[in-house]
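User: Run a structure prediction on this.
Assistant: Running it now.
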Amino acid sequence: MFKSIIVVLLLLLLYTATVLSQAPRLLSHNGFLADNVGQPINGKVGMVFNLYTTSVGGVSLWSQSFTDPADSVVVSNGVYNVTLDLSTAPSLTYNTQYYLEISVNGETITPRLKLTSAPYSLGPWNTSSNKVYYTGGYVGIGTNNPTNNLVISEDANSFIGLTISNTNTGASSAEEISFANEDGSQAFIRIYDNDNATYPGRMLISNNRTGGSIHFGTAGINSRMVIANDGNVGIGTTSPIAPLHITPNSSSYAFRIDQGVNGHGILSYVNTTSSAQTVLAAASNVSGGFYVKGDGNVGIGTSSPYTKLTLTDAIGFTNSTNPMVYIYQSGTSNAERPVIAHSPSFPTWGLSYQDVGDKMMFQAGGNPVMAVNLGSSQVELFKADGTKTIELDPEEGTGRGADISLWNDAGVNTIQIDADYANTGVGRIVTDVLQIQGGSDLSEHFEVNNSGLEVQPVPGMVVCIDSKEPGKLIVSNKSYDPRVAGVISGAGGITTGMLMGQAGSIADGHYPIALTGRVYCLADASSSPIEPGDLLTSSDIPGHAMKAHDYTKAQGAIIGKAMSSLKEGRGLVLILVNLQ
C-alpha cells in the first residue's frame, strides 16, 4: 500500500492571451509518494488521475493515465511532477467544486484531493461575484443576465465605461483593443502614449484584413462614411473612387462650408507643373461648368481655358445701383480705372477710363482697328492691316475746336476738316475734289426786298441788285435790267448745291441766290416762245425771265441760257445761270 503525501497541488497557469480569451487548460501537479512504512519511493510508477464533482462516488468527468512504460511517472526520493491536460474535457466550466482522484499502480489513494484557488484560473470569469456574472458562456459586469460575450451595465447617473491602462513610460508604450478572426488577420484600435518615441499621442483605428474597410453608420447598419482599404474616403457611397468622394442622396448641398470667423473658406494645393491638370472642377449634367487649371487659367463653360478667364457664353450684370465692373492695376490709385456701368445711379457713365497716359485699343487679328487717346480724347480708326485712315480730334489744341483728318490708302491726308482753323474760329475744309450730290447750283445768301411790289420772293424768281440798299436784292420787274443778279434757288425740286455767306455780316441773308449752275426759273413766253439755247433776260413781269430779242439792250442783262422750252404763257424753264 502506498502512502501519498500531497505536498503541492496546482500552481501553474501557463498564460492568459488577450482579455476574455480562454486560457490553456494545463495543470501542473506535484506530490510525494512513500511506502507503507514511510520510506520514499524511487523509480517509475503507473498513475491514473480522475476528476469528480463529489468527494466520494459519482461519475468521472475526466481521466488521464500514465501507465505505459514509456510515459509512466518518475519518482525520485518520493517526489513526482506531472502536467495534467484538461483540454480533453471541454465541457468543464469551472463554476463548481471539483475533486481529483489519484491511483498508483492500480491502488486508489483516499481521500480525493479538493481543488482550490489557482486551478480555477483555468476558467477565467467562470465564477460570479456581486459585480461579475458568468452564465451560459456570457460574462456580465453589472448585470446577471448578459446577452452577449461581454456586457457592461450600470444604472447610475455617472460615467461608465471600459478602461485599458498602461502605466509604463517606455518609448514603445501603447494600449490596444484587437479583433482577430480564424486566419489571424486583425483589426484594432490602438492609442500610443505621449511617451511613445515613434507616434506620440496618436490614436490609430485600423483594419488589416484583406479588402478591409472602416464604415461609420447611423440608423442601423447604414453606412454614412467609409474609409476604403486603398485610403479613399466615401461619404454617401461605399465605393469611393477618389481620396474624398461625396455622393449625397438628397437635393441638398453635397458640400458646404460655413466659416464662423473672419477666416478663409477653401484652400487647395495641387502638386503639379502641368497646365492641363484640373485643380478645381464644378459641373453638372448640363454642359459646361467651372474649371480651374494648373496654370491658374479659369474656364466657365469650358474645361480648356486658354486665358486667365475664358467664357464660352455671354456675361451679364444686374447691379441696379452701382458700377458693375471695376478693373484696376495692383498698386494703382482707384481714380485711374476703367469702369463699365449702366444704372440709374450712373446714367452718364457707360464706359469710363481715367488713366490719361494710356490709349484704349480695339484690335482685330493683332492689329488696331480703333484707338482712343485718353489724354487728348483723340480717336483713331485703322484699316484691317493697321494703317490709320481716320483721326477725330475733339480739341486740336488747347482752347481750339475739333479737327477731322482722313487718309487715303497711300497714307496721304486727302481731306482735312478744321472747325477752328488757325485758332481763328473759322471752319475750313481742305480736299482735292469736292463733290456735291444734294443740288446743282452755287448760291449765296442774300436779303431780297419786294420793292413795293405786291409779290413775295419765292424760289425761281429773277432778282436784281437793290440800288437803294447795298448788298441786298429786289424782285426784278423791268425788261433788260442790267442790275440782274441771279435766280432764287430751290424751284422745281432742284435744291441748292453749295451755299455761301458770312453770318452776321452784309454778305448774309435769308434767300439762296443761284449765281451759277442749273436752276428752274420763272419765265414768260408771251412775246416769243423759249427754246433751249436761247439767251434769257429780265422781263416786265415781276420775277420772270424772257427771251432776249434786242442783243444791244441785252448786253449786261443776260441771266443765262435756257435748257428747256416754254411755248407760250408763263412757267418754269430750266436754265444754266451764266450772268453776262
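Confidence is low (pLDDT under 50) at residues 3-22, 119-127.
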